[in-house]
Structure formats: C-alpha cells, structure tokens
Write a structure and sequence with these properties.
By secondary structure, the chain is mainly α. The protein has 2 domains: 1-104, no CATH class; 106-324, no CATH class. The protein is built from 15 helices and no strands. It has helices spanning 2-10, 14-39, 51-71, 76-95, 110-121, 125-128, 135-146, 148-161, 165-188, 194-197, 212-222, 226-229, 235-250, 252-271, 277-307. Helix 8 packs parallel to helix 13. The two termini are 40 Å apart.
Length: 324
C-alpha cells in the first residue's frame, strides 16, 4: 500500500506536489484563526467567515481531482481540468489567508515599508498621489486594478486554443510559483496596505463622486486577504509583470493590447493606496526570480521521475530564451 501511494505521489507534476505542500499549513492556519475568533469574546473577523467551508470545498474538489488523476486520467475533459486545476487550487490557498497571517507572524512591517518609500522619495507616495485625484481617473484605475486577472486568462486561453502546449505550461507553472512565492513573503513580512496603515495621513476621499466601477473594485478589495496583511509583495504587479513579459515573449500582438491595462494597474496600486512603492519593486523581483528558476525546478522534478522510471505526459517548461 505504501509503495503504491509513493508511486502515485511521484507521478504527479511539480505544481500538483507544491499545492499539497501549501494546502496543509493553509488549513491549519485557517482553523487556528477561526478557533480564536470563535472562542474569544469581543473579537470578530468578517474576513474569515466561511473559512472552514472554503477548506471543506477545497478538500472535496482536491479529492475528486486526484481520484480522476489516478483512476480516470484518460477522460478527455479531465485533460483540460488538469492543466488549470493547480491554478484554481493556488487561488483556493490564497483565499484561506483571510485575516490569518497574524496568527503565524504578528510582527508587522508596514511602517518600515513606508519609511523605505519616504527615504527613496522624500514623501509617502500614496499621500503625494492625492494631488492627482479626479473621479474619472479613480474609475479608470479601479477598472484596471480589478481586471488584472483577465489579461492573464486571455493570454493562457489563447495559447491553449492555439495548441501551444509548452508555452501554456510555461506561463501557468511560472504564475503558480509566483503566487506561492508571494504567499511565503506575506507570512515572512506581514504588512497592511497603505489605505489601512496610513489612514490618518489622507485628506481626500478618492472615491467621492466615482461610479459603480470604483465601488465594485473597492468591494472586491475589501473582501480579499490583501485587506489584512497582503501588501508585500504586490502580487497584482507580479502577475501583471509576468503576463506582459510572457505576452512579449510569445505573442507581441497581445502585449501591445495588454500594455495600457498593465501600466494603469501598476499606477493604480499606489494611487488607490493598495501598495507601497517597495511592494512593486518586490513584485518585479519575485517575477524575475521565479521566471528564471521555474524551468530548473521543472527539469529537476522530471529528472527525478525519469530515474524512478515514471513516464510523464506533461510538456516541459521552456527555459529562458528557449523557443518551442
């Protein structure tokens, strides 16, 4: 029995292994946070409500996924599901970060991040940006910030439609490792966003007079884990840098289409008070580091599988500068 399960684990793709590694601590942290708010009088957190339900749903979906993976891998529909499921699971892990990071590391660094910004620019950039306030600008930047996810989806679906299997997996695996790298930094360096940490410094309500677009974007942000301790790095910027970079690498036509949204999103992180400038730098560094190491991680795992006599049907990730 042990040998059978060992073989099954060894047959997984590296992204499927990484998900399992992150899922267990994610579950434990969420249970710990829920137990604290359930047993502590006067303490409440709207952000983690439903956390246990999310865990249960994630585990059920995970069991279904791995059952098909080990017993019905030849199903046609499952082949596409296998390509995208690790990304969905990465987002599921992300949702379990709601108000939970503080239970792992209570040592916040947001004031230190702001101090670095002030050292670099002589002013807090999110406060300085107030002078450019206008309702139409807030609406546009809110739209850009809220829709960063879709330019990535468009890119990977276009690759899948075109049958670009190696390019598709290169983007997907790199993106997932960016997310997990960001999660680790959230825990190592917990920081509240400027709109929370520096609230007393602002003199203008940047959402005054704006449309439903800005209201919707603000509602989405307020229910995300970024509203707790998810400022450093800016994963919005990390994934945007990655999407623009991969679009330039594989489909330059899409790059020029995505560029206005991408640039606007990066500006929005400061203007909308979601991030410090140093968060953007960290996001760029994370993107570059993961871009470089992802092919090596994939290659190491595939070499290990070859030594174990395991045949993998996943296309190898393209190395930096390599063409399919």
């Amino acid at each position: 029995m042990l040998k059978t399960w060992t073989r099954r684990i060894q047959s997984l793709r590296i992204e499927e292994i990484i998900f399992l590694v992150f899922l267990i601590p994610s579950i434990l942290i969420t249970i710990r946070a829920n137990w604290y708010f359930y047993t502590t009088v006067g303490e409440d957190s709207k952000k983690i409500e439903g956390g246990i339900a999310r865990i249960i749903v994630t585990i059920i979906l995970m069991l279904i996924f791995y059952w098909f993976l080990w017993y019905r891998p030849d199903k046609r529909a499952f082949k596409f599901i296998r390509e995208v499921a690790p990304f969905i699971f990465a987002i599921a892990v992300y949702t379990n970060l709601h108000d939970t990071i503080h239970f792992v590391n209570p040592h916040d660094v947001h004031f230190q991040l702001n101090a670095i910004d002030e050292w670099m620019f002589g002013v807090s950039p999110t406060v300085w940006a107030e002078q450019f306030y206008s309702p139409w600008l807030t609406d546009w930047l809110s739209f850009a910030y809220m829709n960063y996810f879709w330019i990535t989806v468009i890119l990977v679906l276009y690759m899948y439609y075109k049958g670009e299997k190696r390019e598709f997996r290169t983007v997907m695996l790199t993106m997932m490792l960016c997310y997990y790298g960001g999660y680790m930094l959230y825990i190592l360096l917990p920081a509240a966003p400027p709109r929370l940490a520096l609230a007393d410094l602002y003199t203008i309500n940047i959402f005054k007079g704006t449309s439903l677009i800005s209201d919707s974007a603000r509602a989405v942000v307020n229910i995300s884990s970024a509203s707790a301790r998810g400022a450093f790095p800016s994963l919005h910027c990390t994934i945007t840098f990655l999407t623009l970079g991969m679009a330039w690498r594989f489909h330059k036509g899409l790059f020029w289409i995505f560029l206005p949204i991408g640039v606007s999103l990066i500006i929005a992180t400061v203007y909308l008070r979601h991030h410090y400038i140093v968060d953007i730098y960290a996001g760029l560094f994370l993107c570059a580091a993961v871009w470089y190491i992802t092919p090596h991680i994939d290659r190491k795992w595939r070499t290990y599988q070859d030594k174990k006599g395991i045949v993998t049907h996943s296309p190898p990730v393209l190395s930096v500068g390599e063409k399919a």
